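Morning. Coffee machine broken again, so started the prediction first thing and wrote up yesterday's gels while waiting. Chain of 378 residues, entered below exactly as on the submission form.
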Amino acid sequence: MVVSSHSGVAAISLALLLLQNVNALSITESSRAQTARSRLSEAFRSPSKKLTLHPEIVLPEPSDPTALLLRASEVTKLSQILRTRAKASAVFVEGTVDALAPMGKEQEDARGNFPGPVPIVYSLTDSANLSSSLEELQTVDGVEGVMLSFFGGKEIDSVDAYLEEAKDSAITDMCSAIWDAGLQPIPELVLSPGSEWSEEDVERLVDAVKDTCGGLDPVSIVFTNGETADSEEDEESNEEEEEEDSTPALSIPASVSKRTAFIGSIRTNAGGGRMNLATSQLSTDKFNGAFLRADCVPGYRLNPDLNVVGGFWSAAMGELKSLKSKSFSFRSKVKLEKDVPMEWYNYQKDIMESGSLGKPSGGPDPTLNSEGGDYKGF
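Came back before lunch.
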């Protein structure tokens, strides 16, 4: 049998074209991206299998020139508090890259010291700004990842719904750009409230996310429950039901958990032991970590004072990590609902003086005045 030279050349050309297509679909990490994966993986997973805690920080963009000048020192101070007092495992930061820079420097300067640096994940709020944001992040130390809210935060209630949304998505190119920048893309999936996911569903979903990311498992996936459309009166009347639905309902198979870290979002308001309840639920459901959203901080939208925010997370995360009884109560020194907390540092002292090993009571503490700013646990 004789094969023409033209046929041989055509076959070789076709083979080379197929090889190029395969390579185009395969994401490879740079050494910098591999370092970022290692640091984030260590931050998201506890050797003792305990839930890791990751606060969300929303950096303000002051309009007042004086406040803008002072912001750098405030961000540096906040960074130090999160690292040394709150002992966060990682920090998710929303804001401009310029506002983030002092935090990145403070964390990087701590490398080699104890406590060491806390990895920073930049929360991208507008995918249209990805290219310019990555260019700016190249000059910022301490940032290891970028969180992408898949499909613009649109809720999904099934794997089929995810696959439908992913068809015409540009997320693969975005993830590739983040890896090329030496960082790790961290997908955020917003799940429909009340949706339940079996182990088979979760495995299929993680496989689908891997394909969307370009064929490489992300170091972590953040799962967030969509917000309900209930009115404030409905929320108050159905408080117990809401607390049950405050965390994603996933059945996480051990085999999939080895591939990527599962991080669950918590948006519940502090007080009444609600944050403790939510983190306990995540731990029971075998999540690796908890993403403590800025919504947990009372009044943060009205007055995002960074001193207040740092003090809150120091007190809250210390309590969430504590093995002591969660049945105690303490009295605040400000009226949180009306004044917005300005002295959260006092909370740590309040906790120490409150007798945190007290026995559970049969009902609400009659001396606890919630209208006056009293809180029962976190």
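Residues 5-25 form the longest helix (21 residues). Going to sketch it on the whiteboard this afternoon.
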